[in-house]
Each structure stands twice: as structure tokens, then as C-alpha cells.
Design a protein that fits this description.
Low-confidence stretches: none
Radius of gyration: 22 Å
Number of domains: 2
CATH superfamily of the largest domain: RNA polymerase sigma factor, region 2, helix turn helix motif
Strand content: under 5%
Order of helices and strands: HHHHHHHH
Number of strands: 0
CATH class of the largest domain: Mainly Alpha
Largest sheet: none
Structural class: mainly alpha
CATH topology of the largest domain: Rna Polymerase Sigma Factor, Chain: A
CATH architecture of the largest domain: Orthogonal Bundle
């Protein structure tokens, strides 16, 4: 591996195109931390930043036969990280809009039928159960945001913590809930669309 550390980026790219795993490892070790720091500064979440960077490096390996730069490997990797972050933000916005529109639909159509009310109550109970299963500090911050409609600053002041911590906790809570509730809410919406 020592010999690979002396190679230039263009030389490593050429070896990578030839499926040289050691060249890939050298690129990974050379650029992982730098791209991780770049991603973390944008998303402010260690796990998401790691996921983004791992995704970029996986793509680099799987698409090594084409679409690799001839030079400026650093620029290529940073651009790929930036694009993954944009995709993540766009995906989060779509998911948030979807959940908000589902809530809006449920609130407008709550009294349509008894069966519908039963399903709605079951879904609400399930959502509440998942909220209560969050870690206690995360749940407290999430409930202050969603139930009492406090701003991140107001929550931070009330709990004597930083706004950044509040933002991180709410973001993590939403990610956990979306993961756990994604399929349930989707199926619930499909059942109601048929009506």
C-alpha cells in the first residue's frame, strides 16, 4: 500500500479504471476525511455525513469503468458529495410535504365514516407510540416543537441547551419517525385514496 501513497491522483484514477482495489483504497484513505468534513458542515449530522460519503465512494467503485475524471479527483469527489447533499435535502422536503399533506387530508376528512375514524385513530395511536419510543430528551424536544409549536430558540432557552442541539434532535427524530412510519402512512394513504 505504501507505494500507492506516492502516486498522483491521475495515476490512481487510471489504476482504478483497471479495477485496482489498492488504488481505490488509497483514494478512499486520501479523501474520506476531507469529504466527510465537507458533508458534515452542510448536514450537521455525523451519520448522514458518513452515509453520503460512503455512497459517493461506493459509486466511485461501481462506476469506475466510465464517468471518471482524467484529473482533479478532489473536485470530482467534492462535487459528488455536494450533489448527494442536494438530493438528500430535496428528498427530505418531498417526504415532509407528503406527511404534511397526509395530515391535512386526515384533518379535513376526519368525519367522513366510522371506519375511517377507526383507522385514523389507530394510525394516531401508532404514531404516538413511535413518538414515545424516541429517546427521552429527543422526544421532549420533538414534542415541544410539534405540540407546543415552540421555535428552536425557544426550546433551547427553555431546556438550557443550544439551538444546534435542538435542530439536530428534531432532525434525528423526524428521520427515525419517517423510517418507522413510512410504509404505514403510505398504505394508509393508498386505502383512503380509493374512497
Amino acid at each position: 500500500m505504501g507505494a500507492y501513497s506516492t502516486l498522483s491522483d491521475p495515476e490512481l484514477i487510471q489504476l482504478l479504471k483497471e479495477s485496482d482495489h489498492s488504488a481505490y483504497n488509497e483514494i478512499y484513505h486520501r479523501y474520506f476525511y476531507l469529504t466527510y468534513v465537507h458533508a458534515y458542515k452542510k448536514v450537521r449530522d455525523e451519520e448522514q455525513a458518513k452515509d453520503i460519503v460512503q455512497d459517493v465512494f461506493a459509486t466511485l467503485w461501481f462506476k469506475r469503468d466510465f464517468n471518471l475524471p482524467q484529473s482533479n479527483l478532489a473536485g470530482y469527489l467534492f462535487t459528488a458529495v455536494r450533489n448527494k447533499i442536494f438530493d438528500l435535502f430535496a428528498h427530505e422536503q418531498v417526504k415532509t410535504k407528503y406527511i404534511d399533506s397526509l395530515k391535512d387530508y386526515l384533518s379535513k376528512n376526519a368525519g367522513s365514516t366510522t371506519d375511517h375514524r377507526v383507522r385514523e385513530n389507530e394510525l394516531k395511536a401508532y404514531i404516538e407510540k413511535e413518538i414515545h419510543s424516541l429517546p427521552s430528551k429527543m422526544r421532549q424536544i420533538f414534542e415541544l416543537s410539534r405540540n407546543e409549536y415552540l421555535t428552536h430558540k425557544e426550546i433551547a432557552d427553555r431546556l438550557n441547551t443550544s439551538e444546534n442541539n435542538v435542530t439536530t434532535q428534531i432532525s434525528n427524530a423526524l428521520r427515525i419517525l419517517r423510517t418507522k412510519l413510512g410504509m404505514i402512512t403510505f398504505l394508509f394513504a393508498l386505502i383512503n385514496i380509493k374512497w
